[in-house]
């Protein structure tokens, strides 16, 4: 059955399944609703750690339609200083909890990472992780050029990572 929404944003849809006399575990999916035209989209992290998307329709939507942010249902991490968008993927550079000076003489307080999120939030992957490594190697700021992501940490300078890399551990 078709359902029509007049408010752009996201809607939690819950699926309940009963098989015979047994009720299976509910599935809840956060889905984008209403405005499905290809328009520029602003991605941002909100306080509390979620990634949001906002359609920039330039008022080219029906007058009775409310444009609201879409919650991707994905954590932004502790301190997402950079969000980069390339080829329908969002790259989130999370500097981790220890983004300021910390006495990490054993080099194990790192908790930053770079996450790769599909534009609708349906798929999340880790590009590179610094968990359990030196806190000063957590990713801070970066940019994408060609087929590489370049980011800076507070220790070794600028690191180059191919955009196709997944599930890597930071290593000098």
Poorly predicted tracts of residues: none
Question: In terms of structural class, how would the helical and strand content be classed?
Answer: mainly beta
The largest sheet, given as strand count, sense and whether it forms a barrel, is: 5 strands, mixed
- Give the termini distance in whole angstroms: 54 Å
Shape: globular
What order do the strands of the largest sheet run in, or round the barrel if closed? 9-10-11-12-16
Helix content: under 10%
DSSP strand count: 16
Residue share in β-strands: over 45%
Rg computed from alpha carbons, rounded to a whole number of angstroms: 19 Å
Give a brief description.
This protein is an all-beta fold.
């Amino acid at each position: 059955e078709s359902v029509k929404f007049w408010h752009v944003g996201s809607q939690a849809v819950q699926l309940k399944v009963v098989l015979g006399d047994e009720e299976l575990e509910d599935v809840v999916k956060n889905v984008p609703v209403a405005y499905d035209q290809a328009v520029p989209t602003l991605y941002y992290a909100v306080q509390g750690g979620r990634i949001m998307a906002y359609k920039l329709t330039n008022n080219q939507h029906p007058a009775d339609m409310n444009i609201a942010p879409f919650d991707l249902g994905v954590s932004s991490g502790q301190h997402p200083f950079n969000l980069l968008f390339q080829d329908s993927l969002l790259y989130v550079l999370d500097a981790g909890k220890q983004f300021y000076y910390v006495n990490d003489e054993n080099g194990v307080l790192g908790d930053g990472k770079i996450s790769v999120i599909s534009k609708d939030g349906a798929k999340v992957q880790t590009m590179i992780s610094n968990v359990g490594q030196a806190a000063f190697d957590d990713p801070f700021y970066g940019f994408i050029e060609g087929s590489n992501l370049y980011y800076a940490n507070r220790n070794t300078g600028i690191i180059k990572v191919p955009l196709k890399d997944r599930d890597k551990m930071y290593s000098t």
